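Dissemination and training. As part of the outreach component of the grant, students in the summer workshop were shown how a complex can be specified as a set of sequence lines and then modelled as a single object. The example used during the hands-on session is reproduced here so that future cohorts can follow it. Participants entered these lines:
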Amino acid sequence: MKQPEEISEYLKNQFEDGHIEMETGDIGEPRIRITAEVIKDVAKFLRDDEELRFDVLMCLSGLHYPKEEELGVAYHLYSMKFGHKLALKVRVPIEKPDVPSVESIWKTADWHEREAWDMVGVNFIGHPSLKRILCPDDWEGHPLRKDYVQQEFYRNLTTLN
Amino acid sequence: MIEAISNSTERREMVINMGPQHPSTHGVLRLELVLDGEVIEQVKPHIGYLHRCFEKYAEEMGDYAKVIPYTDRMDYVSAMNQEHGYVLAMERMLEIEVPDRVEYIRVIMAELQRIASHLLGIGAFGLDLGAFTPFLYLFTEREKALDIFERSSGARLLYNYMAVGGLMRDVHPEFKTDVADFVKTFRPKIKELNDLLSYNKIFVKRTADIGVIPEKVALNFAASGPVLRGSGVKWDLRKNDPYSIYDRFDFDIPVGTGEMGTLGDCWDRYMVRVKEMEQSLGIIEQALDGMPDEGDVTEAIPKRIRPKEGEFYVRTESPRGELGYYIVSDKSAGPFRVKARAPSFVHLSMLPAISKGSLIADMVAIIGSIDIVLGEVDR
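and obtained this result:
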């Protein structure tokens, strides 16, 4: 079982400088911050490496950081074989929220990414069908953004009250 | 004449809409089925009919404690387990030590709820396949479990019973004897269920070799709970990543065996649930023995919840699988972000992969065997 710090060092040796760094809060699990360009390569490496074998993507969540004007994606990985856990984090500017899709690596990402697109508006590049999943196809805006204003009418029906 | 008939049998695709009000979709789920005759070529699930913005509410409310009643409403069939996961996540954030009595009561409630949830899951599964009687038998038993919840929490379905650091109120005075009675009367019913449904020839024919999920597919889709165990993976968060006080109990993890057909078919998933109920009874008995009689269940409840900055992903084993809460705190009184990773959501996303090539009548069996609750899928 490896700790996130060890995995971070291990990853730094595999990838170019500046793409991977540790991020910690006051409490809670440390996570590895990754730039969006390399997320797919890192994901593939994490899944296939003999010492890591992160074969399960437990959860994928979209986030909105209003102060920094950024969107984020959090990946929570788990290795059935070794029992280690890892949290990855990607942050992209809100004007161009492009993150490569990991659907081809973990199939479960398909719906999770659709949800993150629907709810916060992260644009997953390379996703087979990035459509809304919880809201109707013609809904406006992304509800989980902090500055979201609900549309007043949906197909001539009032949505407020 | 013969020529005309043979010409008319050319291959044509047909699209059929199943749901959102179809009785065997267990709620409001719509499936778009592309058929070649009776064989399913493609399935497109459409969800969101029950979307109630759980995550938005949780973030807008500005109070961690007020989220608990909303977690009940996600998977309304196993509300206790949903609460359990959330309060555990909050306690890990606040580093609260919970009294032993509270932990034991929570485990008993969670396991009773698991039995109640499986009874509904199994009953409805049989009902979908035309077995009406077992459903009624099982519901009688489920009622008894709900009676215990009602006497302790005041509600039969959505309890709002667990609190961060404790319980809303103590259990009712006869709790221990009530639960012991339930365990005693329920155990023989499992054998009855096996005679009535599990080994029933028609039921086996309808479920064996149907909707097979190979281990590799299950892992790639991050399946969990009975769906993963049905494919033969010995994996249970209560054992493999213990939370609460589950490390104190002795129990087995039942897995699919391929006894009636192929490993990972609908029957295997069904049987895992049946065997799990037996294990839950064992856990409840052990918890009843270990549970302290005295103690204030509200003493560790914090007056004010203000966690430090940080993120947590906490997962528990709900009756349907891995229920994860991803909570981000920004030092304010309410969560910055709450994401519920619902097992049904993940399992439903497998549907197109596992039902391709099966008959349209088997679709009902496959949906029933992965036991989804739409309240949790749509949140």
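The longest helix of chain B spans residues 100-128. Students were then asked to discuss how this feature might be tested experimentally.
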